[in-house]
Amino acid sequence: MALIGKLVKAGIDITAKFQSVEDNPQISQENQLRELLNQAKNTAFGKYHGFEEILKSDDLIASYRNEVPIFNYEQMHEQWWSRQERFEDITWPGKPHFFARSSGTTGKSSKRIPITKEFMATMQSVGTSMINSLHEFNFPETLFESEVLMLSSSSSLDQNEQGFQEGEISGINVSNFPDWYDIFYRPGKEIAAIRDWDERVEAIAEQAPEWNIGAIAGIPSWVLLMLQRIIKRHQLNDIHEIWPNFQVFASGGVTFETYREDFEALCKTPITILDTYLASEGFIAYSSKPETMAMKLALNHGYFFEFIPFDERGINESGDLLSEPLILGINEVEVGQEYVLLLSSCAGAWRYAIGDVIRFESLDPPQIKITGRTKFFLNVVGSQLSEEKMDKAILELAEHFKTTINEYMVAAVKNEHGDYIHQWVLVSDVKSDGLAEKLDDLLKSANKNYAVARSKALKGISVKVISKDLYTAFLAHTNKKGGQTKTPKVMKDEKMKMLLEFISQP
Asked: What are the pLDDT digits (tens) for 282-309?
């Protein structure tokens, strides 16, 4: 294995030298768009929007923007994607190979994103680029001798009525790993196929002593629970007692920072955290430099990006896109500015607003951080509660108790046991009896990820009710009293602690 580690590291070093020579970002992006349009020009979407004529234009990008409107999921699905299970060549040549189910963070239910064979190839291509970027981190050879544990959703996919396989994107990826991945991939295909999360993690914990894990990939909340289960089962002081070569955690899905202290408590030695932007819509960005958690945009992998300023130039007060927002290219963005991301891809997504807000941390190379969604959301432990779903639950709660709830504030905080809960403060005259239980039930029915989080890392919710007078006094206390000012509905834990301290005063 030592020889393998030397060879792998040497191969990455050599490949990284070639990868370091990259085209100008604007040229790269124009080339990606041209290739996408060429491949899709004979689809129904391509013919309807005149891809053939766009390709003849002297200004390809401007022509594309003029001819193709911006789509959200509902528009893309209703107008185009919903036909792909019955007909070929709708938004991309042929039919999708899979459908990726996302959590339905901003919609009424889970989204179904088409996954093509070309799209799967881009996911692997970006993954390879991320591996090659490990050259920058100067990891020891022992990392490349060890195995990689990927904590995904189940790789057992469902089959819909039309015969298409569906699942979450991580499960789809794992189900399509080539056989040679078995050399280093853990927990292996058999365990990964277990549908029940607890059973899958229990199987991982049982097999853990037999593995030499050097890197782990997954969502922090679930990975943390897995590590805790392993430590408890084998009566360890820390995870490095069983996996001494564990050096890297590739994080995704939720912000890692709120979990940093918990991970440090489980590790004997420091580990390197790599952030990833891997969504149902694509593997969009990844950490490539050791000195930053910012992620490098995947500009050469089958994606064309556009950016809408996340301010009055692009959105309204409700967080919705303007009818004619300002659209910027990769050559027009600024460091420190937030943008709504538009994506065109080889999955047959065209000028698609995936709902994420990103901020540029650098331009050479273009590196980003995810700062949120176009709608505010609460996602510390993977609950993925959007402001829209919380608003709906609060309205239903008020209707159930035959009252009004003027405002609400919520934050993810740790209770006395160190577990995360959702702390709610409602502005109303209703009695608090039964509020927490009913609100919990409403949120579970509104979002499957919240229901899953409540059964795992999110241990409960707490509800406090304050009068409108007390709420107004708090606004005055924080210098936010005024006709058009209010506290954020989704608070940081420090702000929530300040609010709780204020309302508990005699």
From this structure: 999 999 999 899 999 999 999 999 999 9
Please, which pLDDT band fits residue 258 given cuts at 50, 70 and 90?
low
User: Which residue in this structure is represented by tokens 């709608």?
Assistant: 375
User: What is the Cα–Cα distance from 260 to 190, expressed in whole angstroms?
Assistant: 31
d(CA 494, CA 422): 13
Give, in order, the Cα–Cα distances in Å from 238 to each of 227, 232, 338: 9, 10, 39
Handedness of CA 476, 477, 479, 484 (dihedral sign): negative
Q: What is the helix (H) or strand (E) element at residue 170, kind and residue range?
A: helix 169-175
| Tally of residues, the chain | 506
Close Cβ partners of 201 (under 8 Å, ≥ 6 residues apart): 225, 226, 229
Q: Name beta bridge partners: 213.
A: 147
Kind and range of the H or E element at 26? helix 25-40
Cα(491)–Cα(464) distance, rounded to whole angstroms? 15
pLDDT tops 90 at residue 254? no
Which two three-digit tokens encode residue 141?
């050879």
Pairwise CA distance, residues 251 & 273, whole Å? 7
**C-alpha distance from residue 53 to each of 39, 260, 303, 414 (Å):** 14, 51, 21, 57
* Beta-carbon contacts of residue 452 (< 8 Å; ≥ 6 apart): 197, 382
Question: How far is the C-alpha of 260 from the C-alpha of 488, rounded, in Å?
Answer: 25
Tens digits of per-residue pLDDT, 385-434? 766 678 788 889 988 998 888 788 999 999 988 899 999 999 888 887 89
Are the C-beta atoms of residues 408 and 489 closer than 8 Å to each other? yes
Give the strand pairing for 272-279 and 366-373.
Answer: unpaired
Mean model confidence pLDDT for the chain:
87
The token duo for 434 is 């039964």
CA dist., res. 24 & res. 158, Å (int): 42
Structure tokens of 477? 């206390």
- With beta carbons less than 8 A apart as the criterion, state whether 258 and 412 touch: yes
Over residues 157-200, the pLDDT tens digits come to 998 888 889 998 989 999 988 888 888 999 999 999 998 888 99
DSSP β-bridge partners for residue 295: 287, 368
Is residue 447 within 8 A of residue 105, CB to CB? The reply is: yes
Quote the Cα angle for 406-410-416, to 5°. 135
DSSP result, 233-271 = HTT-SSGGGT-TT--EEEE-SS-SGGGHHHHHHH-SS--
Q: Where are the alpha helices (DSSP H) in 433-492?
A: 435-446, 448-455, 468-477
Q: Are 445 and 473 in contact (CB under 8 A)?
A: no
User: How large a percentage of the chain has pLDDT more than 70?
Assistant: 89
